[in-house]
């Protein structure tokens, strides 16, 4: 975790509209290990624009399906300064600023790739332990090779893919951030998920290889690298937060549990999101992950609003969400907990809710 960040607390408490369909992690991932069966890969070159390997001349944009996705679960803009009272707001705001072009408490740290002209977007591949690791790069449409951009990773659920995550499984991630950040959508290696037997170590190596390539070939703000994921991808994000706290600014596990907690490196800011009726990854698994990051980041037990108030509000209102900010956390390492009652994968609250992408972006912007 890069030190010197502003100690900023924020919280939004909003009800969201009805869901038009599932936004879950896919495949009903519940098993910490899963069946480690090798998935097939495509031979997508670095000049292609999608997972099928079809040629594309797009250099700075995203796939059409992703660019039209919206975040139906709007959230309030973060506030700054002293801890808030957590009073509910009724007017949603999705206005954001581009941290790559504004002056904030963190000075951008340009990577070695700054200045490299015309880096490619779309589908890419990289060799990891003899396997072809597939991932998608989404660049801001007006990408400037001399401007350091935040770099965000989003990880899919079990039995899904990086393109699935970009196209809607990771709701709002693309829509909220595509104008302001470089975004990465990897497809898991070693099995159908990220953290199970035969999956965890190869995917950790895969992540390292992609991160190293991105900072070497693209203009990345190394002070603003963050990772989010759903279901199996959320489990993996918790692993990355532990192992790569020296390279990640923030994590956002959505419907995840905590596979690792020993030997962690440095600290990361954490936004933990979980559905109140998740039958695939039980609610208390999310609470345990939340409490781990709270303790690791030096937060007290008090939140604004209280956890009890948040839980009661979400239970009382279907298709809603509410968030609580822990108080007294170490500088630059805030922890925020969000609960929701949105219908997700197979009509449970498992999966990535519609407000997720916008909320994650606001959290990262506030650091």
Structural write-up:
The protein has 367 residues and is of the alpha/beta class. Helices cover 22% and strands 17% of the residues. The chain is built from 8 helices and 10 strands. A 10-stranded mixed beta sheet has the order 1-2-4-3-5-6-7-10-9-8, with helices on both faces. A hairpin with a 2-residue loop joins strand 1 and strand 2 (131-138). It is globular. 57% of the residues are buried. Mean pLDDT is 79; it is low at 1-104.
Helix-strand blueprint:
Layout lengths: L63 H4 L54 E7 L2 E8 L10 E7 L6 H8 L3 H5 L4 E5 L13 H18 L2 E11 L1 H12 L6 E5 L14 E7 L7 H14 L6 E2 L2 H10 L4 E6 L8 E6 L15 H10 L2
Parallel strand pairs: 3-4, 3-5, 5-6, 6-7, 7-10
Antiparallel strand pairs: 1-2, 2-4, 8-9, 9-10
Keywords: Carbohydrate metabolism, Hydrolase, Polysaccharide degradation, Secreted, Signal, Xylan degradation
Subcellular location: Secreted
Protein name: Poly(3-hydroxybutyrate) depolymerase
**Tally of DSSP helical segments:** 8
* Count of individual beta strands: 10
Tell me the Rg in angstroms.
19 Å
- Mean pLDDT, rounded to whole units? 79
Main sheet: strand order:
1-2-4-3-5-6-7-10-9-8
Shape: globular
Helix content: 10-25%
